[in-house]
Amino acid sequence: MTITAAATAEDTSLHALFHPRTIAVAGVSRKSDGQGNKFIRRLRQANYQGRIYPIHPVETELEGLRAYPSLAQTPETVDYAFVAIPAEGVPAMLAQARGNVRFVQVMSSGFGEGGRGMALQQDLLDAVRQGGMRLLGPNCLGTYSPAAGMSFIDGQLFLPGSVGVLSQSGGLSVDIIRNGEYRGLGFSGVVSLGNCLDIGPCELLAHYLEDPSTRVIGAYLEDIRNGRQFFELLRDAKAAKPVVLLKGGRTAQGLRAAASHTGSLAGSEQVWKALAAQTGSILVDSLEDFINTLVIFESSRSLAPPFDGRTILFGNGGGASVLAADALGKLGIDVPPMSSGTTQALQALGVPAGAGLENPLDVPANILERSKGRIAGSILEAVALREQPGAILMHINMPVIMGYRQGALLDELMHIVLELRRELSPAVRLLLVLRSTGQADYEETRREYTQLAMQAGIPTFLDLPSAARALHALRTYSRFFHSRHA
């Protein structure tokens, strides 16, 4: 179905999907246990500033708000309607809207998933056309927009950011938001698309490509009905913004799972690898790498300076550095030896015996403690000045470092990292890995420092292999971008 052919230029904009001034909610009950009740409470938690209109055939007040019997009877046009009533009643409700609704999100399922409910799916499409609106879903959670105070998860919203995500899985949408915010990501929007009977990946991709508040785009996809358009959007964009793709259904058994999930078909592994190679998009294999790749792109101060792959490794823990050098090398990221001039400059700093002053740089915790961490800053400043690497990857073994002066050494090292970021040229990327054992004693501290570093533009990771894969993604994107914008 294509409703856009008869729409005006104003109607085709998705602005109201992310910034609605008015929201109608169907699925609100006096018992306060409906999905609509939860949605209204989440809007209030998120400090939504627009008008909210509960819809109910007989009730006149719900959740402390005046209720209206139908979508056609609200006192003003509805920008965004949230509908979570039994599937059989949805088409009739929407058909009666009579042009009073711009966008409707249907949370309800039962419209063609797994090949069932096909007649009801057609009824829904006919009703949307008759009611004169655009449809998000069905079978979806809807829009998460921190700037507008819209949320489909509980709790306070984080500050808006520059990552725009579209997802054909509601559950993964929640995972992306929660994991992303733990890691310090900020979102311009996250949209759960569901079955994509009307609004689909192509329109969301086009929106994010044009949206000035979005710098980085992420997409979890299972099926794209108009794959050629999706490819052309990416190709014509010439990698102006990084696009990270997590594709479900790239194997035979994944394909079966995707078909069961949304009643759709999915493309092959080779097709998606070719699409990524031809458009400069980054294709990842897991949710963890999806988040990690968004992290390195969103927190980079500038994506313009080319990244040549030359990386300086610095940390406390020689074995970890060796393994990290292996991980980087397998991905084509160079950990080059220091020049003789740099080695002499490091020796002149008077670093105590026991530290390794080659690349990787290994400075044990007891040596860092002697200078309250300042020797780390001196070493990295000297290396950055003389070597001008593409990246500095610093890793901190938190359980060891936090054993000094009740965590004071860790705090000192973090301040040194933040100061170093301010002094470095934009051409030198600074990455941080906060290594931990996962114990509760360390996790809250890691979360706080991760978000602090991300706010300062320092991409921060949980382990060294993840950072290595993120650097590989950055190098892949950088090569493509500069080949198209030379």
Descriptive overview:
This protein is of the alpha/beta class and 486 residues long. It folds into 3 domains: 138 residues, Rossmann fold (3-Layer(aba) Sandwich); 142 residues, 3-Layer(aba) Sandwich (Rossmann fold); 183 residues, Rossmann fold. The chain has 19 helices and 19 strands. The strands form 4 sheets. Strands 8-10-9-11-12-13 form a 6-stranded mixed β-sheet, sandwiched between helices. α7 packs parallel to α8, α12 runs parallel beside α19 and α13 packs antiparallel against α15. The N terminus is likely disordered.
Overall pLDDT: 92
Apparent shape = elongated
Helix content: 40-55%
Low-confidence stretches: 1-11, 258-265
CATH architecture type of the largest domain: 3-Layer(aba) Sandwich
CATH fold call of the largest domain: Rossmann fold
* Count of individual domains: 3
List the total number of helices: 19
- Order of strands side by side in the largest beta sheet? 8-10-9-11-12-13
Please provide a brief summary of the model.
42% of the residues lie in helices and 17% in strands. The chain is an alpha/beta fold and 486 residues long. The protein has 3 domains: 1-138, Rossmann fold (3-Layer(aba) Sandwich); 158-299, 3-Layer(aba) Sandwich (Rossmann fold); 302-484, Rossmann fold.
